[in-house]
Amino acid sequence: DSEKRFWITYNGEIYNYTELREELKQKGHRFVSESDSEVIIYAYKEWGEKCLLRFNGMWAFVIFDARQQILFGSRDRFGVKPFYYFINDDFFAFASEQKSLLRAEIIKPKINYAAVFDFFVLSKTETDETGMFEDILELQPSCNFKLSIRDNKFKKWKYYSLSFNKEFKQFDRNEFEKLCSET
User: Fold this and answer.
1) In this model, does residue 127 exceed pLDDT 80?
2) Of the candidates 41, 6, 42, 34, the residue with the CA atom closest to the CA atom of residue 18
3) pLDDT-derived band of residue 175, with 50, 70 and 90 as boundaries?
4) The pTM is what?
5) Dihedral sign of CA atoms 52, 54, 59, 62 in order
6) What is the DSSP string of the chain?
7) Residue 36 above 90 pLDDT?
8) Is the pLDDT assigned to residue 166 strictly greater than 90?
9) Cα-Cα-Cα-Cα dihedral of 135, 139, 140, 142, to 10°?
10) pLDDT tens digit string along 38-50?
């Protein structure tokens, strides 16, 4: 941002960024570019973590707040953009590919045999946060994290869940017609 408080690294696209940009301009924010990354920074500055609920798009990003010494990361609702990370008491590293983390030399690659079994025997891939390597985790779709650099506290949570009806009913043409007419 213009104060050099917030920094972002970002992969993705926010489809409604022009509308958000105009709304943020009305709130007094000044932009120096036409990029959606700058809109993300000012949306975060204006609405905090709730800015995600306004985004229509696909993303994986991390924002660094230099004043608070916090990293805030997020992944889009459906996980279109990948986000892998490694964390221990001494390091936090993230990337869009596992091989980037393996090259960082802070990780000793250890095969996750359960994930290998799932892949080769059950044809399942990345069904939870652990993948092919034990120490590399995947930030799941619709999830955020916050890492306090001052005290090394890491918190992760889900910010979005798709609502659905679990009730099963027989198809009723009259009910269908009624619901169609209401929309």
Assistant:
1) no
2) 34
3) confident
4) 0.84
5) negative
6) -TTS-EEEEEEEEETTHHHHHHHHHHTT---SS--HHHHHHHHHHHHGGGGGGG--EEEEEEEEETTTTEEEEEE-TT--S--EEEE-SS-EEEESSHHHHHTTSS----B-HHHHHHHHHH-----SSB-SBTT-EEPPTTEEEEEETTTTEEEEEE--------------HHHHHHHHHH-
7) yes
8) no
9) 170
10) 999 999 999 999 9
Question: Angle CA(22)–CA(23)–CA(25) in degrees, nearest 5?
Answer: 65
Edge-to-edge strands of the sheet including 92-95?
92-95, 84-87, 137-138
Q: Distance between CA 59 and CA 36 in Å, rounded? A: 11
- What are the b/e assignments for 26-61, b being 16+ CB within 10 Å? eeebeeeeeebbbbbbbbbbbeeeebbeebebbbbb
105 band by pLDDT with thresholds 50, 70 and 90: confident
Strand bridging mode 153-158 / 143-148: antiparallel
Q: Do residues 36 and 55 make contact, with C-beta atoms less than 8 angstroms apart?
A: no
> Average pLDDT of 133-156?
95
